[in-house]
Amino acid sequence: PLLKRLNEETVLDTIRAGAPISRAEIARRAGISKPTVSLALRALLEAGLVREAPGRPSGPTYGAIYFEPVAEASLVLGVDLGARFLRGALSDLTGTLRARQDVELAGADADTALDAIAALRDTLVRAAGLSPELVDEVVVGIPGVVEPQTGVARLATNIPRLDGRRYGAELEERLGVRVTLENDVNLAALGERRQGVARGVDDFMFLSVGTGLGAGLVLRGELQRGRHGAAGELDYVAVGLGEDIDPCAAALAALAEATMPAPPYDARSVFAAARAGDRPAREVVREEARRIALHIAPIAAVADVELVVLGGGIGTNSELLGDVRPLLEQWLPYPPRVEISSLGENAVLMGA
Questions:
Q1: Distance CA 325, CA 244 (A)
Q2: Is the pLDDT of residue 146 over 80?
Q3: Backbone dihedral region of 326: left (phi > 0), alpha (psi from -120 to 50 degrees) or beta?
Q4: φ, ψ for residue 50 (rounded to 5)?
Q5: pTM value?
Q6: Which residues are 120's β-sheet partners?
Q7: Which residues share a beta bridge with 214?
Q8: CA dist list (Å): 156 to 193, 304, 315
Q9: Are 153 and 146 in contact (CB under 8 A)?
Q10: Nearest to 113 by CA among 81, 145, 139, 138
């Protein structure tokens, strides 16, 4: 049975890489005999994972039958559960999004989010025109730590009534399919590595700066979660320090109020004023960049990452780069490259 499964997986991978492809070409590329390929193809056809391809490559085909993978044979629902928005996307086996929707969660807690996620799943399946039975797994990003041994959500204070619950298990019972619960910034890091600015980079950090502060760390191509799943919880890096180094939204607003002569003091307004040439706003952005660089430097010094990707509502402002980069070059012998997330608010969904 193991050898049969390995042959089927090898044939399926070969079809995915070379479709449309004939039985003889599969055997040649995979290094498997034609009779063995035929047996594997029969099983894959019965499972609905491959089908005969309607198209043919150019040139003579000599009556050969060609095969292609069935992208919609299985679907994955990716969910980004935030304090204000619930974002969802339905993906097929090629990674192509079949449906995407954002829902505003005004004052929602973890219990009402259960209903919202179930409703979002149904809406996306209908929009894609596919059967709900095709959804094989749901991956949910949350703003908190997921303990690897217990699946309990910890440090998840942005969403009321989420902390301390086995939320993934609750979702599994509600949705009737397998659910993977993961830290949202970890997912954003995976998204950037697969489809974003970190493609091809094995050692990098995704730093999210917004309402809170968190990092997803990828080393040697593998996401690092740590013993308790709490790797990258940079909100705690300032413990014991006298100097205020918090770059998050509330701290930025307080800094703006102390520096700028008139409101508004929210992050969006501050960055807009800085782009327009407002000098006090520019000072706030410069201080914000210094605080962000202070969080990058120790991780870069310890892990020697090649790249730092800035994300989150504050981190995606490109004005920060002109101040963050020179500071790291001044402080570190091997400063990492710093870039803005190319996926933006879609990073968590792409990782999911």
A1: 21
A2: yes
A3: alpha
A4: -135, 165
A5: 0.88
A6: none
A7: 208
A8: 25, 29, 21
A9: yes
A10: 81
